Amino acid sequence: MGLKLQRRAFLKNGAMALVGTAAIPSFLTRAVMAQATAAGASRRKLVVIFQRGAADGLNIVIPHAEPSYFQMRPTIAIPQQQILDVDGFFGLHPAMASLKPLWDAKHLAIVHAAGSPDMTRSHFDAQDYMESGTPGVKATTDGWLNRALCAEDERGREAETPFRAVALTAEMPRTLEGKIPALALNNIRDFHVGGGGATAANASFDAMYDQSVDAALRGAGREVFEATKMLQAADPARYMPAPGAEYPKGAFGDSMKQIAQLLKADLGVEAAFADIGGWDHHQNEGSVDGQLAQRLREFSESLSAFWMDMGTQAEDVVVVTMSEFGRTARENGTRGTDHGHANVMFVMGGPVRGGRVYGRWPGLQPEQLNEGRDLAVTTDFRQVLAEAAFQQLGARDLDLTFPGAEMSPHRFLKIIA
Amino acid sequence: MSMISSRSIRRIVGGLLALSFVCFTIPGEGHAKTHAAAKAPPLTRRERAEHALDRLSFGARPGDVERVERMGVERWIDEQLHPERIDDTALQARLSAFPAMRLSAEELIQRYPPPAMVRQVDAGKIAMPADPVERAIYANAVANFREHREKKTQADGGAAAAMHPAMEVSSLLRLPVDARWRAVLAMQPGTVRPLVQQMTGAERQQLVAGMTPEQKEVLLALVQPARVVTEELQDEKLMRAVYSQRQLEEVMTNFWSNHFNIYLHKNGEMPWYLADYERDVIRPHAMGKFEDLLVAVAHSPAMLVYLDNQQSIGPHSVAAMRASASGAQKKSAPGLNENYARELMELHTLGVNGGYTQQDVVEVAKVLTGWGTEGRQQGYGFQFNERRHEPGEKVVLGHTIGTDTTGTGTTGENGEAEGMEVLHLLAMSPATAHFLSTQLATEFVSDTPPKRLVDRMTKTYLKTHGDIRQVLITMFHSPEFWSRDAYRAKLKTPLEFVASSLRATDADVENANALAASLGRLGMPLFGVQQPNGYSLKADPWLGAEALLGRMNFALALTANRIPGVRVVIPEDTQQSELQLEQALLDGEVAAHTHDVVMQEMESAQAAPVTAVAFAKGHAAKGMRDPFAPAVRGGAPMSQSELAAALLLGSPDFQRR
After folding, report:
1. Which of A349, B203, B544, B604 has the maximal Cβ count within 10 Å?
2. B640 and chain A: CB distance < 8 Å anywhere?
3. Full-prediction pTM beyond 0.90?
4. Whole-complex ipTM
């Protein structure tokens, strides 16, 4: 592997024009090296989406062949003829129409009745458990995705980039907390001293930290300025999504757009995280239209735009979605649903064996329901996440990623090729 | 770790000369123990004053170091240890901007109803209040609640039809202040919020111009009562950190508030539970007996709700028996909730390896069944509910609880007193003494506090039955506290960074709303930790790229006066002023390299002026932004000295304390 290849990879991302040819800064060389030399596994990327608030999986991927579905949800059930059937038993909510082509092209897989072995119905606890990856254990201080990066097979890795793990959130999500340095960015356009443009103050702060006698702050400062330089080279302000990729308005679409931007800029992103709230529909959830439909439309259109935007680069990317728990099988007295148990997860991407619903369906008969009220869990959410971490991040040490869960490849659902 | 500038070396030499005047004694300590520290030069008088201010306060204001040095660092520490002797009227004047925070829990709930109460008023279960101002607040809250509910029922795509406010904005703004206030109060319920939302920032400023804090507060409540509570809670905390003369009391209040962490967004009512938490539960005991503090926290509705003890029901209690007998189809089976019991031992007292078992957790959970809160209409106070209390014997850490203290020969039937017995047991445990001493030494001395120091603090704790003030005194008189290894060794948390920046620049904070939002951006929203662990006392979590970059941007925005509601005056440009700034902001503790960079920047900025942008603009963690907070005008290039001050506040040097 010679300089030629590095330079080609480097030119490909278009950074050259901005930084000039005289001297390639070491951070960029290192980033490119990491890209060019890493083994196949680490070229793959994992995007993790959290739907906060407990999305109603039974109205998202609808078991329309279950007669009790319609009986239990007299006002909020999606009428049979409006459901986008996927396999004769399940169907998608009509607001998810934009994802149907991905399903048809076998790039979208569904895991139904997935969830946590912990029975809590508290958003607070359930999100915490799902993000830490240790249901029932409050003392865990780090997140599963950070541990997955720790568990990554490091052979072939030559350099780190500050963008290895990125969250498009104002604060570092629990999922990414831990040993591996991760970036939480509310908005990549603001990630600069002075908020944008190369101010003199930027260079001064850079110099100050770069030469500081304070080792901890010197290290942290170098990370900041490497990241800002890499972003500046990628020029996020002038980013144009690929033709046809129309992100919906709103925070989630914006997050997905920025993830696409970071991935396409070849900054060395391996894991990215975004979240979308507003799924806690205790009242007036709606049916074909209404609150859930609105959230679902934004959710689905953001994901399909991301897919379009990534184009051929999507072949290395897997997106996995989750929500802390599902909702009651029956609708409640206020035309909504209460906190339940199992839920649906989506897995989308190039290497995904899509067009299939994974997991054992537990049924909606009263005796089949968890505590007589919720969809029962038949797939531990960690089986899905472990496979994604293993396949996309090369996280070979599954005990480190999900301590106590006894995960191993034979428990994978074989969703990802 | 320490950064020694040329000036501090001069000072060390000066300090050595002055050593004979330093009359600091180390009680009960032989000279042999300080032998290791003797290799590095001891702190000079000046450095000791700086160090004390760095650790016992939220940072020095200009002139503080001289003042402490003059009065004697020991005397200053002694004064700080007795906050009741310190006059704090200047702070009280600033706190008058937060009338809701002066109300009792009952008064606060009555005047500014939480969402659950609004729902009950809407459902006709609670009557509208008689007081006309409260009536207007309730009427608007109910109208807004109904509007929100109806919007939810509408099909999507139907963007809410623009409300036409009942009143013309321009004519409203022309009214004199009292008439203006009364006019808003008299508006059709449900129209105040859209009116305010439609106004420009300048119009909103005009709307509240001249109003008293009470009037402004009511206006905000007409928009949304939760904002009054959430914002005043955070703003008051910031104001106290910046302006209280009783700095150690605030540092300790913050320490315990974090130790007994509560999450503001646990549920819609939590801001109301939190309103009196620091004021009535934490601060009065911050330097008192730990057991009193622990008991107060255990009785606080905030903690009982946050850690779910409120929901815990003894499986054999009257309430559980009644429920199963009636065969009521419960949403979920009532039972024990171990959450608080576990954290009480793991995080609040014994520590993670404090020698308790899972069985102890279950037993403590049983003991604490019945500890909960009153119904909403009674005012959310503490209530022991005997009907939920688990009967029978409980054994905690080998002690049988509730054994025959009354001479009746019964065990395990002591109701609330059982909980008090467990709290006493935990507060007096050597494991608790050691864990709390470690935490205090981590906060005040270093991320890896010397074991010998922790051991001495533990001894003091046990000897004084958990007297926090005495433990602090042991620490503040230890050679470890005053060692050069400890000097400037702590990384400031974002709260410490923001507060110390404001103190160093002698900032005038008229409205702390943007500062609270800034803390969110810097990774430390107030009362914003979901997990019961609270924020870390150590450096690692604060070294993230976005948060560190945020500190630099905050520094630029602050000195350029682009933080809404905050005003600083940086003295005018001269070559001389850089040194003056170093002196004012960092008491001259600036590394040579930092100094050189600042000097270069000042020269180049003359040619190419720098403009700062507002920080945390439009950013409010979990969306609470005061519509009446002042806006900032901006865009003017920064003066050389403003830029130099920003570089100094954002420098690695300023991040240490």
Report:
1. A349
2. no
3. no
4. 0.85
